[in-house]
Every structure is written in C-alpha cells, then in structure tokens.
Amino acid sequence: MSAVRALCELLEQSELIVAFSGAGISTESGIPDFRGKDGIWTKVQPIEFQDFISSEQMRRESWRRKITSSDVMDQATPNDGHNALKTLYERGKLKRVVTQNVDGLHQASGVPAEHVIELHGNATYAACLSCKKRCELEPIVTAFRERDELPVCDCGGIIKTATISFGQSMPEQEMLAAEDWARKADLLLVLGTSLVVYPAAMLPGLTKQAGGRLAILNRDPTAYDSIADLVLHEEIGPTLSAAVADI
C-alpha cells in the first residue's frame, strides 16, 4: 500500500482528528526552522525571557531580530499542508489544530482562530506583559526603525511579541486544552515536529493512552515512531494534500 493511500485510509476512518504541527509544515512556506541542522538557533543564541525582562539591551536586540526576520514571515502564505488541514476542517473531521508554530498560517488558511491552539504564542502581534493588552506591530516597528524607540505600554508595562520565549512559562490554558483534545482524538496527526520539546511532546502519548491512533508525517524519525500506527518520512504538503484529495 502506498504512503498516501495508508494515510488516506486513516483519515477516512477517523471522525475526531486533532492535528499537532511543528516547524516542518511551515518550512514549505519559506519560514526557516529553529532547531534543524541549519536552523536559526544554530546561528544565533536564543534570548532568555528573564534577560529580556531585565536588560534593555536584550529587549533592543530581541526587537532588532524580530524586525530583521519579519519580512520572511510577513510574505509567507499557507501551503498545501495548511490547505489540506483546512479541507479536513471544512469536512467536519478535523476538530482542532494544536501548533508549536507562531506564524498564524493555520488561521490564514481558513481554520478559525478559536480552533487553533497556539502553544508557543503568535509572532504576528505583540502584548503587554503586565496588563496583557494586545499591541499591533506596525507602529512598534516604525518607532523602533525611525527613532530607536522601545515599545512601552500605556500602563508602563514591557511590550513583547506574543510568543513564548526560552524560560517563559507555557500558556496554561492552551496547554490544558491541547492535552484535553489529545485525549479526545481518535486520530492525532503529527506534522513536522521532532517531538523533543516538552511538555508538548507528550501529546502523542496521551492520545495512545486514551485509545486513539497516531500518525506521524515528518521528514526525520521521532521518539514516538515505534508506537505510531503510521509513520511517513515524506514532504508534508504533497503527501497530506494527496491523501485528503482521495477521501
């Protein structure tokens, strides 16, 4: 049986699918990976959350990096993998997308934001760390570029991109929701994540413990391959879109 046909059959047999996506689905949209052998973190040291809080220099460097990389993310559009998930959602099979990505491409593809659980936040806007007010990026970027001005909230709080940094606590509500949906799923569809970052990496185990099935579509092997019902080391976009088209 072909890889596409095997995945197609799993999707056909499932009625409560939860997708769990990582950087691998977005690299096909031109967004660089962070942890891969040529990933961003092999070239620059990540800025720890406490360093961002305590050091104006680190906040300035963080915003410099954000502005430098924003063109790539701003120009990225959903690819075949994102669009295949949207099709599964529209057919009523896909109930939630849990993602480690911060690019907003699942929402851009047409999956409603309330059905996308973002474990690592979202880089398309910022937020005050004190009052939690949402802040749009355009005026922040303009002030930084033109006046070298760091953003400060009206309440006096520090403004940071709405992403989860190293050393920052995972969002509790989102993590609890992800765990709940992983247990509910009759199929957890893992897409483009190495499954090495905890606590998110425990989600496949929760699905299997609850009696659901596990399919992993990832370029490289993962620690969960041995317990998965299906493992495909293929490109996500072409493989998933072909499987969905055959349902």
Protein traits:
Rossmann fold; 6-stranded parallel beta sheet; 247 residues; alpha/beta; elongated
Short description:
The protein is an alpha/beta fold.
Can you characterise this structure?
The protein has 247 residues and is an alpha/beta fold. It has two domains: 1-31 and 77-120 and 170-247, 3-Layer(aba) Sandwich (Rossmann fold), CATH 3.40.50.1220; 36-75 and 122-163, SIR2/SIRT2 'Small Domain', CATH 3.30.1600. 40% of the residues lie in helices and 17% in strands. The chain contains ten helices and nine strands. It has a six-stranded parallel β-sheet, sandwiched between helices. A three-stranded antiparallel β-sheet has the order 5-4-6, with helices on one face. Helix 1 crosses helix 10, helix 5 (80-90) runs parallel beside helix 10 and helix 8 (172-184) packs parallel to helix 9 (203-209). The mean pLDDT is 92.
* CATH fold annotation of the largest domain: Rossmann fold
CATH architecture of the largest domain: 3-Layer(aba) Sandwich
The biggest sheet, with number of strands, parallel, antiparallel or mixed sense and barrel status, is: 6 strands, parallel
Please give the count of helices: 10
How much is the average pLDDT?
92
